[in-house]
Amino acid sequence: MKLPGAQRQPLGEVSPNQRSRVVSARDHGIHYPVIARMEQLNSQTCRSIVANAPHQVSCITPKRNGTPALLTEGDIRLIRRAITINPKITAQQLKVSCADHVSKKTIYRYLKKSGIQKWRAK
After folding, report:
1. Considering 16, 74, 105, 111, which has the largest number of Cβ atoms within 10 A of its Cβ?
2. Per its UniProt record, what InterPro entries does this chain match (predicted)?
3. Taking the complete model, does pTM exceed 0.70, yes or no?
4. Alpha-carbon Rg of the chain, whole angstroms?
């Protein structure tokens, strides 16, 4: 029980180990308020952990992904093949020959990330 005026504990993520303990306790028939007291969590948090458990692999929350990649694996292979054949090819020529659906800047960004610069695909 928290005293009035006491600092509120910062919100944080529940560890995978603690998630698995909550799920296994619920599988053994222990009620949510009892689990919440044992794990020092809110009973609603325990309910949401158990509700989300079937969607997760071993109670580990999946990574939050950003936007999908514009260049596919096939595009990347085509770009690398074209650079191997002609090391002095420009990003504009790569765009026309390999990945017409993306901008020249996207191709240049990929080349820079891959460490391919200077005379190799300038």
Report:
1. 111
2. Homeodomain-like_sf, Transposase_Tc1-like
3. no
4. 26
Structure tokens at 25: 């306790």
Report how far Cα 12 is from the mean position of its chain's Cα atoms: 18
- Return the number of other C-beta atoms located less than 10 Å from residue 10's C-beta: 5
Is the separation of the CB atoms in 62 and 56 below 8 Å? yes
* Closest to 121 in 3D by CA, of 47, 100, 98: 98
What single letter denotes the amino acid at residue 122?
Answer: K
Segment 61-89, tens digit of pLDDT: 666 777 888 999 999 999 999 999 998 88
* First-to-last C-alpha distance (Å) of the chain: 65
Q: Residue type at 14? A: V
Give me the long-range contacts of 68-75 (CB less than 8 A, separation at least 24): 70/101, 70/102, 70/106, 71/99, 71/102, 71/106, 71/107, 71/110, 75/99, 75/102
